[in-house]
Design brief:
Two copies of one chain form a homodimer. Chain A is of the alpha/beta class. Chain A folds into two domains: 3-256, Rossmann fold (3-Layer(aba) Sandwich), CATH 3.40.50; 266-359, Tyrosyl-Transfer RNA Synthetase. Chain A has 17 helices and nine strands. In chain A, the strands form two sheets. A seven-stranded mixed β-sheet of chain A has the order 3-4-9-8-5-6-7, with helices on both faces. In chain A, a hairpin with a 2-residue loop joins strand 1 (3-6) and strand 2 (9-12). In chain A, helix 8 packs across helix 10 (191-201) and helix 13 crosses helix 17 (338-370). The A-B interface holds A 116, 119-120, 127, 156-161, 163-165, 167-169, 171-177, 179-180, 185-195, 197-198, 373-374 and B 116, 119-120, 127, 156-161, 163-165, 167-169, 171-177, 179-180, 185-195, 197-198, 373-374.
Amino acid sequence: MAFTVTPWEVSGAIDYDKLVEQFGVSRIGPGLLKRIEAHAAKKGLPLHHMLRRNIFFAHRDLKWILDEYEKGNRFFLYTGRGPSGSTHIGHLIPWLFTKWLQDVFDVELYFQLTDDEKFLFNPKLELEDTQRLAMENALDVIAVGFKQGKTHIFSNTGYAKTLYPQACRVAKKLTFSTAKAVFGFGNDSNVGQIFFTSMQAVPAFLPSVQAGRNIPCLIPHAIDQDPHFRVTRDIMPRMGYYKPASVQCRFLPGLTEDGKMSASKADTAIYTTDDARTVRKKVLKHAFSGGQPTVEEHRAKGGDPDIDVSYQWLTFLEENDAKLTQVYHDYKSGRLLSGELKLMLVEKLNGLLTGHQKRREQARKRLDDFWVKD
Amino acid sequence: MAFTVTPWEVSGAIDYDKLVEQFGVSRIGPGLLKRIEAHAAKKGLPLHHMLRRNIFFAHRDLKWILDEYEKGNRFFLYTGRGPSGSTHIGHLIPWLFTKWLQDVFDVELYFQLTDDEKFLFNPKLELEDTQRLAMENALDVIAVGFKQGKTHIFSNTGYAKTLYPQACRVAKKLTFSTAKAVFGFGNDSNVGQIFFTSMQAVPAFLPSVQAGRNIPCLIPHAIDQDPHFRVTRDIMPRMGYYKPASVQCRFLPGLTEDGKMSASKADTAIYTTDDARTVRKKVLKHAFSGGQPTVEEHRAKGGDPDIDVSYQWLTFLEENDAKLTQVYHDYKSGRLLSGELKLMLVEKLNGLLTGHQKRREQARKRLDDFWVKD
């Protein structure tokens, strides 16, 4: 089946094995998991369920990052968000994992909001829109619980005096021919789109520039952003910096369909600001079910958790393995009905969002403690 | 004869008639000159000799600028410099004229130093080099005598927080296909070069953005920069702004040859920091002469002022028409020797540079009064 995964389009039923091959990333094997688990244990934490369940499933140079860390050469984390709309649960997935990495390794995080990108690539958005959305999205980032003082959030236009000169250094080493090959640019592409990846590269070496020494960088991100970081990895050694390492996650499927959840299709997304009633309504109404048409049939034949979106979402959100396994078997055997499964997801989501929304409101007053500008 | 005039290369014997046709600019006719002369007269000034002598020879929409001005709709001036080396006499030519425009029309001037461009286009320059040169060049700009409080000098990297977001607005409306057609970009071009013209467009509308109303813009510049402003003129109306008007000058020939004076070939240039002895030595040694091989022959046959570089330079620098005409006839008749003509140029240059160098040193303390940054 055809699928597309680029930084600007994710659609179709994604074959992650093919992506691994196509992008040239590596699977995260048991050896790496064990090493990360050992570091987590020192902080009294279990291995993150997104690693246990292969949700963060691929990487580049993660072994090197751990080698350096174990030698005392601490890395920093870099991730980001394209502010094209409100934050939804799909966006939170890599951020929750990134917070865990910050907790385990006690490292700095640089969080880039690409308001320039979303303006350049979306005909319907003005710069004022993406700048406003960047500030709104930043509230969600802070609400995730990143460490104050070690977390630096910025938008590209708000931090352009620092970022643009460094982006020029990247751009000078990136030919149109390479950009075209990686991103598929053509005659119709605007010149800002063609330049943009230079801006996304900068946070991978900016802390090294600012510190005056080479610091390893680890980028947790959804796999669609990998083309940007392939380019970054190609150029940074030619500028005298380490290649950034990265760790990639799968996409949380949309409520109604396969593929990446889309903020522009309201039905397929649960927003971080949805209230409990809305969440319940959306899940009950829209979550694609792997159950049988009638209760009788379901009890007799059982449901299919592997295609059931509510179950899939629980694999991203339910930390307790035993509980999740129980759900899987109960659903498959028909003991658990589709409606009941959906309500389990609703409860999980509303539990997560209640805390998130409270912290998100408090974040309005804390923005200055995290926000970096020129 | 073949010649090339692009923003990044000027070479060969330039046919300005062909350029007018190729670029689609208009000749400045007697009607326009008369109108400008009338404005100058109100300030007690004659029409500038660079207009009288067709050195500023072409324009776009100059009539419209005067119409608006006469209706009370004041324009602002925008010009700039690519800081790839030290300032030489060739750079001063359009600046001297721009100062005159500022004096006559009493308007604001925005002066852009494109340190990003020179870094992106010159493989030998680092960003630190072009940033340093931008500051050095700014001293020359101030030394020209622009009005404090009405003159705003900035470098692209130093003002990037303001410029980059606006450049993105331009870039969104500029396809690769257009940039390729205008500038000749190809697969080998770096992505910063492709984006750059967006940065050069910004000062043509930034004052309108900042004032919240549409203000006409007049750009005095050497004709090689016209491709940038063709693009700017195409895009600005689509952003809701006036097309910027422009007025173009010829190039001061190099001391030794035809074409544009080049800061990278020291023999062909007189730098603003050259002392009197150096100027004398350079002119006497290198200025291409239209005279005869021997004094006897010169007295008998006369010299050719039309190919004599010293005479050509005087047409750019000597304000007195009668004096210049006298020189022309004296040289042509053989009464004036090549060495004597050269010494007249030396005197003119050193007169200009003595004052310039004094003001240039004073400018170090005045930089903050002119320099705009984020």
